[in-house]
Amino acid sequence: MKRVLVTGGAGFIGSNFVQYMLSNKENIELLVNLDALTYAGNLENLTEVQNDKRYKFVKGDIRDKELVEKLFCEYDFDTVVHFAAESHVDRSIEEPELFLTTNIVGTQTLLDAAKRHWKIQPNDKYSCDYRDGVKYLQVSTDEVYGALGETGMFTETTPLSPNSPYSASKASADLIVRAYHETYGMPVNITRCSNNYGPYQFPEKLIPLMIHNARNDKALPVYGDGMQIRDWLHVSDHCAAIATVLEKGKIGEVYNIGGNNEKANIEIVRLILAELGKPESLITYVKDRPGHDRRYAIDNTKITTELGWAPVYTFEQGIKETINWYLDNVEWVERITTGDYLNYYTKMYENI
Ligand code: NAD
Ligand code: TYD
Q1: If you measure from the C-alpha of residue 123 to the centroid of ligand 1, how many angstroms do you get, rounded to a whole number?
Q2: DSSP H helical segments within 153-280, as ranges?
Q3: Each residue of 111-121: pLDDT tens digit?
Q4: CB 85 within 8 A of CB 170
């Protein structure tokens, strides 16, 4: 039975992962979700699991050493899945410092607590086996590899070459995780996934933003020429891949996660307009993002051949379901765009 700490479980991927684990994995004894509820954290994403006896929410910051230590002592975690991060590239251009402290120092705080709690000392890995079943998983991104030209794909050995403050902070965190493995023998994995789409994504990211604007007949802001390429994966396939790495990943290894779905931004925007029956005249080309990465593409050979994971969704099916989800959950989007969701925590948790 597993005692899992999930950080950032009120965000887009984290909340999908919490739901995925509690519905699909019978070996979860306890799952604690530590989330600071920044603008991107929304407990409404988790209403389906909030009464599950195995689930506990803790509002707090991953950089709060005392709190993190206390949680390890109180709950005796054997697994950490670290999602919590500042995740939006455009915000990182405006406010790099927040990205560095949350994404880098926050990661180190978690690693230190896990190291102390798991009694992992320097060079343990040379003298004994890892404590069975203990694992720290760092949820990273393909953006740490930088940008590709027209050909080629990111493999796990592609040199890190991040271009934005966001990706630089994620790459730094990856290097710290690696160092804790090499130096202290920490039982770690790093996963690097391509762009996710699906339910509960904050409507500042491309797909939910474009659906929201198209629905409201507002301009769809396409950066630069719209020919930048992203490699899209449905969030539930990402969650399944993380669960696979937790179960079967070889300690110390990095696994790329992607579903071979390269699309230019403008293709996605046109597809959304077509699905919603809206005119292409809503497309508005705007000034390009500084340092905008041209193309990402993941080579998923390692995780598919060594661990047997494969995506379930085709992009065609996944994007239709996703568009329908946002149309069926207009109130969820409205509460975010008006800021109302920020009151949810106070309303639901004022007595505890
Ligand atoms: P998100 O922005 O939707 O959610 C981030 C969550 O972290 C929020 O709930 C927020 O409240 C929480 N958080 C932020 N700072 C915190 C802090 N100091 N302490 C505690 N909680 C804090 O992000 P997401 O899109 O769900 O991404 C989750 C992770 O997956 C990130 O690490 C991101 O780098 C990685 N990732 C994302 C994508 C993608 O396409 N979205 C792809 C690959 C990897
Ligand atoms: P985004 O969803 O922010 O993810 P990332 O930057 O992490 O890949 O953006 C996806 C792509 O869409 C990226 O190339 C930037 C582009 N984009 C736009 O063209 N317009 C927008 O309003 C946004 C948010 C993104």
Answers
A1: 31
A2: 165-184, 206-215, 235-248, 265-276
A3: 999 999 998 77
A4: yes
